[in-house]
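Quick board copy: two proteins, each given as sequence then tokens.
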Amino acid sequence: MSSIATIRIKNLRLRTFIGIKDEEIHNQQDVLINTSIRYNADKAISENCIESALNYRTITKQIIELVEDNRFALLERMTNEILSIIMSHKDVIEATVETDKPYALRYADSVSVSLTATQDPS
């Protein structure tokens, strides 16, 4: 039996430059990031040590650095780059990233983009 774990990072609140309008290019805005990361946890379960698990703290630090140190015109681009960071970890089987831009539209709480990727089992 294989144990597939799902790690969820919920409502990671960051500030970045995101958008195409002049005010968006010159002023940082809040973004909310949610991820769902699936990986084979057999080794982590049997060995009970951090070195055998997928380190979500490391992944989160990489996401924070990417988002806070860059500028993005589109949510799609930022979401894809976050997803690429997650998928670069060899133990990840599948991941989904949803990025919200609060108050991007009048009368809406937020606008979000969600992307999913799956590792080739090669």
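And the next:
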Amino acid sequence: MKTDNALGFINKILWGSLLIFLPFTSFPLVAKLFRGSMVAPLSALPLAVLFFTFFLPRIFKPKSVPTQVVPVFLFFLLALFSTALAAFRLLPGYRSDNPLMNNFESFTTLGVGILFYITTYLFISDENSLKFSIACINIGGVIIIVASILQFASWKLFQNYPDLLQSLQSLVSSSGRLFERRVNAFAYEPSWLAHQVNILYLPIWFGLVLKGQSIYKFRIFKKFSLELLLLFGGFFSLFASLSRIGWLTAIAMIGFLIIRKADQLKRKAFNKFFSSKKPQSLSKNAILNSLFWLLVVSLILFISFLILKLLTIVEPTRMANFFNLTQIREQGILAWASRLELAERFIYWQTAFITFLSFPLLGVGLGNAGFYFLGNLPSFGYGLPEILRYVLMNNNVANPKNLWIRILAETGIIGFAAFFTWFYGHIKMAGSLDSESRNRLTSVVGLIGILLSISFVLEGFSMDTFGLPYYWIGFGIVMGVYRFTQNSTIIPAEDH
């Protein structure tokens, strides 16, 4: 019995450290273990121990794996079948890159991601474990915010970074880089910082603040929760990263929340003013609804205008090109995107999509899309410096730089259907939790899951890896809470 308690305590420490280490996306020691891979989260180290002390002892128990996990297992098997099928196909070569090693690395990252996901689900077994997990995630969030503030202040004050910050970055990131004008905290690059903030931290802090909940009893000025302070800090880190897709994702979350709140207010107002009166005609209801949503859309457009004005101050040249409609008409979308430094990204997407069209059913195999890059590269790509550097000097195959197109290109429409089925299942679970009436903390996880889903869709257009743990952990939390609420008696959380 004492041995079980000791092992449980060790597993809890390992789990907490895994969550606290989430800001470190490419730790040098882990990168060496993964043959120099950029995707080398420090959290993989405690996960490796938990695999033996926590995962294996539980995974083989009856009913330990719910049916919601089946689609992602099916996706893994389909990817394996597609990759095996590619062995009977003449695969284009690329310099010294080894297709088998590419396949192995791709399946390793996918397997590690699924391991993060199921471990999270198994650990989130009750409300206490949920609160503990959020508390540890918050500690990681504080690390991100503090690092972002230090980097931002250093650049603004000195137009450079002190040796201490440079040395620290070299210790915790395999890139060892700090970026001009942009913060990346302890992530590999600024866009990775935006990814982790949007996928995990902001949804959690948004959910707690907007649902009027907190996992702490302490209040700032006896009124405001600590999560509200973290939310502002998270927005600062996101803004200072200067990640365009990161900003767009945050705007989408805010837009959804405005529409959601507007719909709630509309229902209350209509119930208050019309419930005791005669039923309104369909035409009058339609007019009132139209006027209401016109006001909401106008508000969203006004907020978008303010954000664009802010971006014009931050990046005046790029934003001037953004509104250059004449260039779009005369030179086309790709030329316009090139001025915005987006054309290279579009070319990667387009090339991978052409690969999918050539192998639409099962794709070319996990990790193989890049081998078809040169053969499917549109002619416009040869006029872009980044593409030319890759063609002439890079020894590694290109990445699609888009998770959704990568899944299509490498596993086909069948693999994409399996992955989307898994994803959609979590949207349904989040919606169910969001309307949970027994406990508001449980309802918080529903809103977290909805915001996570929005972020995941948009961030998928920027990241193409299965190895970063943020969405795996986020969806694991949603599924864990959904499962234990089906049979558990729920304890109220702390209100504001």
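Board note added afterward: The chain has a mean pLDDT of 85.
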